[in-house]
Design goal:
Shape: globular
Helix content: 25-40%
Number of domains: 2
Strand order of the largest sheet: 7-6-15-9-14-13-12-11-10
Order of helices and strands: EHHEEEHEEHEHEEHHEHHEEEHEHEEH
Largest sheet: 9 strands, mixed
Number of strands: 16
CATH class of the largest domain: Alpha Beta
């Protein structure tokens, strides 16, 4: 059966997303408003009867002085990735984007490859022979993922590299940490926290740490901690207007799409985080904390409140987002992996991001540019 692809309205796109259990926040129409340097367009796939069967948010980034674009579908598109004939989905997309002036297409299939239980990750960290998560025997495989990868390679798609020394790729993370919520009571989820997490939550309660919901007006307070976190953890922070734009765009689409949480102690904000929700999937998006008064454990208390609220929303997954692939003690991101896995999270590997060079010369030039950044 052939499929027809055409641009769709925001309303059509949002209706398709709403009919699914979940989708990445980067595959909802409002995400295009968060990225003003990109031109956003919603695409829809339709069967022969005109029923919508797929959707994708594509971001088009222009090359300087050229009317040519990098087309990017972060953590998308939302199609039937189990279909043995992926060509009927992807070929119309490539043809359409080529007609729009795209020289290269990048996408991130939301397809899980492997999972490692919290116990497996803990054992791997303790094993002096284990250097990377990808080399450790997983707890479970998703056999269909290998078939998807083979079909993509056979069609000319190229898999992006997993990333540098810390395991993070340019683009969206290939390795994430997720706490499964489906079918579990809140008490069961609390029991899944390790002893350190439970102790820290009690310490925060005893110290009088208060967790409150914030609004747009509290984003500067969040950003002050975020900038401090960026300096401490050695990453380049996004500017404050990015978060203000994100809040405005996402909450206009759905008032509960984005939440801001603040951990206060004696009138001082010690930690803050943003939380995103699409369907039954909840993401811890950005986190920030200060080095002051760490002994009152504000971050653990804040995360537990967020997990509690996510459970109340009916979440099937609480997603801690990206984790490092490296297991070496010398890596400064290993502490973050311990923190997330300590909350009962399993490590999850996705299929990663894939590129299709529509113009090989321009695509190679882009690769060289990105390698030098």
């Amino acid at each position: 059966m052939t499929l027809r692809l055409r641009p769709i309205s925001r309303e059509e796109h949002l209706a398709f997303v709403a009919a699914r259990p979940s989708a990445s926040p980067m595959q909802v129409p409002s995400w295009g408003d968060v990225k003003p340097d990109w031109r956003a367009e919603s695409l829809g796939w339709f069967d022969e009867g005109g029923t919508p069967v797929g959707a994708g948010l594509v971001l088009l980034r222009p090359l300087p002085r050229l009317k040519r674009y990098l087309a990017y579908l972060p953590e998308g598109p939302l199609i039937d990735w189990s279909d043995p004939d992926l060509g009927r989905w992807l070929e119309p997309m490539l043809a359409y984007l080529k007609g729009r002036g795209a020289f290269s297409v990048k996408m991130g299939p939301p397809v899980v490859v492997r999972r490692w239980s919290p116990e497996a990750v803990k054992a791997a960290i303790a094993d002096p022979e284990a250097r990377r998560l990808r080399d450790v025997e997983p707890t479970s495989y998703e056999p269909a993922a290998a078939a998807v990868a083979d079909r993509l390679r056979g069609a000319g798609w190229r898999q992006s590299e997993p990333g540098g020394e810390d395991g993070f790729a340019v683009g969206q993370p290939r390795y994430v940490c997720q706490v499964p919520f489906a079918g579990r009571s809140l008490e069961d989820i609390r029991h899944g926290l390790n002893q350190q997490w439970r102790r820290n939550i009690k310490k925060a309660e005893k110290a009088g740490v208060q967790i409150v919901r914030g609004g747009h007006e509290d984003l500067p307070a969040f950003y002050e901690l975020y900038a401090e976190t960026a300096e401490r953890d050695r990453f380049i922070p996004r500017p404050l207007p990015y978060f203000q734009r994100m809040w405005t765009a996402l909450t206009a689409e759905d008032p509960d799409r984005m939440r801001l949480y603040l951990a206060r102690h004696d009138g001082d904000v010690l930690a803050a985080a943003t939380m995103l929700t699409v369907g039954d999937h909840v993401w811890y998006s950005y986190g920030a904390s200060t080095g002051r008064r760490r002994e009152v454990q504000p971050s653990n208390a804040m995360q537990w409140r967020m997990m509690t609220d996510a459970h109340e929303l009916g979440a099937a997954v609480y997603d801690f987002r990206g984790i490092t692939d490296t297991l070496e003690e010398s890596n400064h991101l290993l502490g973050l992996l311990r923190f997330k896995v300590g909350a009962g999270g399993e490590a999850v590997e996705y299929l990663g991001e894939w590129d299709f060079p529509l113009n090989k010369l321009l695509h190679k030039a882009l690769d060289l540019y990105m390698a030098r950044r």
